[in-house]
Each structure stands twice: as structure tokens, then as C-alpha cells.
Amino acid sequence: MAKKTKSASGSASAASAVASKPLPSPFAVGGAGKGEAADDPAMAMLTSIPQAEYAARRAEVLKQLNGAIGVIFSGEGADPRHGTWAPDPFFYYLTGITGEQQAAVLFDPSHEDPTKRIVLFLRPLNPESDRWDAFRDGIGKSIRERLGFGTVMRTGHLPDMLTGAARRARKMACLHPFGNYNAPVSGDLLTFRKVQERIPGVSIDDRTEILRQMRSRKSPAEIAMVRHAIEITAAGLEAALRVLQPGSGEAPVAGAIENTYRQHGAHGPSGGVTAYNTIAGSGARGTLLHYRANDGPTDDGDLMVIDTGAQFAGYAADITRTYPVNGVFSSEQRDLYELVLTAQAASIKAARPGATMTDVNNASREVFDKRGMLDHFWHGIGHHLGLQVHDTDPGTPLQPGHLITIEPGLYIPERKIGIRIEDDILITRGGNENLSVQIPKTIKEIEAAMKG
Ligand SMILES: [Mn+2]
Fold it and tell me: What is the predicted pLDDT for the residue at 209?
């Protein structure tokens, strides 16, 4: 059964109609306005993470370093004219600074001057290139206040400062995660090895768990950012449903989603609006886990898998829904869809403090195994979510404040069936909260939404 026909121009105006309906604003109203945010303390929100929270994160790292020195690098800069650049996520997590390539934060716990125990290093001003790329401040009070650091220096001073710190502290601790043996050596380890060649007896420790674990426990401000990213994603999926129909093609569906993200102010540290490449795959292409062309047809009777997430203030949403192209599930699709829903419900139930991701995975695997469908579920159940769509894994069982995705799926390419359902789940003291529960998911909800 086909959905009522829409013209291409009808689809376009439907997409822009979504944008005219504003989402609840996460922007601060400062008590002056009478918006929703002012009336509802839970919505009295922020454009981004407050500066004081970044400072508190840095203070926590300094404390946990327990006397060792540490350094976090923002990463080398690509030429801004060629593609996008995003800061290292640990640097971004500790500073909120987006446009500074080759920057560093030095933790120097034994410095006699408390304002020099955490120092931000920025590459020198270059009036000739800066007038192309960004307005950049000179060193002084205004940059310290704007960035929330007691001390800001140019990177030319980092070698002396870091070496002096190592001489005093005698121990250095790696904060950046290690790569595998084929990957480049992490920046702090590379630097510490050079220091070791010059100062005998200085140790290098693995403290990579500090930031991994801090990042995995989301603060209320971070959860608010993720909630807003999910709200934007929900609007994107709503726009997709107005466009999707037999013959619409995948590209206009993906386009409607990403236009909606842009219109709602999605943004991340690289300047992008999505947390990863949107996947909008119809028919057999819905079984490709990393399908990214999004340029195929949408045929009557097929399913479409849409895996997408906006980012807001750098925080990612990661949602998957599976829709019948013509608005109605066939009986075979219905049966398998219900099975994936049942698996997802079992995994969501298993996601609670003390459980491991393996427990969460096994809950879905058991459901599929009972129906003889286990071989059609060929990926893991999910991952941590935050500043990165595949956020760093804390290496511990689930705890309150952890945020994970739960995304079981079944794939039968020869029958053109791909089904995946993914929600974003916040672990709470009592169990969990599904942050994306508002996005139509049951067969009844989806078919009703597609009629509308
Ligand atoms: Mn995911």
C-alpha cells in the first residue's frame, strides 16, 4: 500500500515547515526573558558547558595526577582551507576551545605558583594568517578571562616549562589514550620519552583511565546538551518521514534530516552539524552498517534504515529507526521488527549500574538465539556516547551518569531486510532513562506518524 503521493516541492516545503516550529531553547535567558527556560528550572539552560565546569574538570585532573605532570594536546592543524579540523576530544573536554591547533594544557602540580599549576599554551599570533582564519587575542587579562585560565602562554615556552616541571615532579603521567602498535605514538608519550632522554630517573606512568572515566560520567550540563542533540535529531527524523515515500530516493531523506539539524543550530567543534555520516539506506542497503552514499532509490515495499545523530555543543546523539518506505510494514517485516524491538527492550532492561556491556549485549543475543536468528545480528549492542559518537570506554561496569547506545539489529540482505533500532540510554541509580523515548518506535507509532 502506497502512502499518499507528494510532489518534490511539497516535500521541500514540508522540511522547511519543521524548521519554523522552534524547539525549546537551551540558550540562557538570564532571568530577563519570559521564555520556557525562565519558567522551568530544568530548562534554564546554557549555550554550552559553563566555563566553571571546564575549570573544575581541569582541577580534578590535577588532583588525580597525584603529583605527576601531565599534558594534553589539541592536535596538529590541518590547513583550514582544506576540510574541517576538530580539536582532540580530551583537549576540548578540558577547555571548550575549538579553533586552536597545536595548543596544549600542562598540568604541573609542584609549581610554587598555584596559578601556574595548570597552564594553557597557544600558538603565537600570526597577523597574516590570522586575518584569514580567526580573531585571536594577544596574551593578557582578557584572554585569561575569556578562556578561564590563570596563565596563558605561547607554545614556544612549553618545552622549558614541561622540562622544568618534570625535573621537579620526577614523574610524568600519560593522559591521552595509547594507540595500537600500528598507530602513531600518542603526543604526550612521545614528549615524555624525549624528556626521559634528557633527565635520567624520571618515570612515565599510564594514567589514561583518568580522563576516560571522567568523560564517561556525564554531568547535568552534559546530559542537557545530549538531550538537546536528541531533540534536534527527533526533528530531523520527523522531517525524514515527510519526505520518505516510494520514489523519493534516499538522498532527499538524508538531506531533510541534515537541513533540519542545521536549522535548529546543531553544531560541534569541527563546525559540523552531524555527529557522524548519516546513514539512510533502503532495501538491501539497509543491511550495510557503514553505508554512506545515500543515493539509492526507495522502492515500494522496502524498509529504510536511518542511523543519524545531530551534535549540539559538541555532544552527539546517535539514533536509528527503521521505516517502511510506503508507510506500512508487511507481515514479514512486522514479525522481524517486533523481534528486534523485543531484543532491544531486553537489553535496555539489562542496562543498569553494575552491569557490563557484555550483559547488555547478551540480553539481545538470547532473544535472537531463541528464534534461530542470531547469525543475522552481526554487530555489538552499542557503545558509550558523548563528545564522540563512539565515546571513550571507561573500562568499568555501567555506573550512574554513563550514557550508552542500545542498537540491536537483524540483517537479511537476500530478502532486502535490514532492521536496526537504536536509543540513547542514560544509566541512573535506579536503572536507566531512555533519552530518546519520544521518537516514534513501535509499529503503531511509526505507521501513525507516516500517515500524518
Ligand atoms: Mn550507534
Answer: 97
Q: What is the fold of 51-215? A: Creatine Amidinohydrolase; Chain A, domain 1 (3.40.350)
| Model confidence at 367: pLDDT above 90 | yes
The secondary structure element, H or E, covering residue 316 is strand 315-316
Specify the pTM: 0.89
What is the distance in A from the centroid of ligand 1 to the CA of 448?
A: 25
Tens-place pLDDT, residues 305-357? 999 999 999 999 999 999 999 999 999 999 999 999 999 999 999 999 999 99
Contacting residues for 174 by C-beta, under 8 A, at least 6 apart: 70, 186, 188, 189, 192, 204, 205, 206, 207, 208
CA of 268 to the centre of ligand 1 (A): 18
Distance of CA 420 to the CA centre of its chain: 19
Residue 234 Cα, ligand 1 centroid: separation in angstroms? 15
Q: Flag whether pLDDT at 12 surpasses 90.
A: no
| CA angle centred on 171, ends 166 and 177, rounded to 5° | 100
Q: How far is the CA of 293 from the centre of ligand 1 (A)?
A: 18
Q: What is the pLDDT of residue 80?
A: 57
- From ligand 1's centre to the CA of 292, what distance in Å? 14
pLDDT tier, 2 (very low <50, low <70, confident <90, very high otherwise): very low
Q: Are strands 279-282 and 171-174 parallel, antiparallel or unpaired?
A: unpaired
Residues of the chain with CATH 3.40.350.10: 51-215
What's the CA-to-centroid distance between 227 and ligand 1, angstroms?
16
- Location of each CATH 3.90.230.10 domain in the chain: 8-25+219-451
Residue 237 Cα to ligand 1 middle (Å): 16
Ligand 1: distance of its center to the CA of 335 in Å? 23
How far, in Å, from the CA of 304 to the mean position of ligand 1?
Answer: 16
Which run of H or E residues covers position 195? helix 187-198
| Mean pLDDT, residues 144-165 | 97
Distance, CA of 121 to CA of 102 (rounded, Å):
9
Q: Which CATH number fits domain 8-25+219-451: 3.90.230.10, 3.40.190.170, 3.40.50.720, 3.40.50.300?
A: 3.90.230.10
pLDDT tens readout for residues 87-118: 999 999 999 999 899 999 999 999 999 999 99
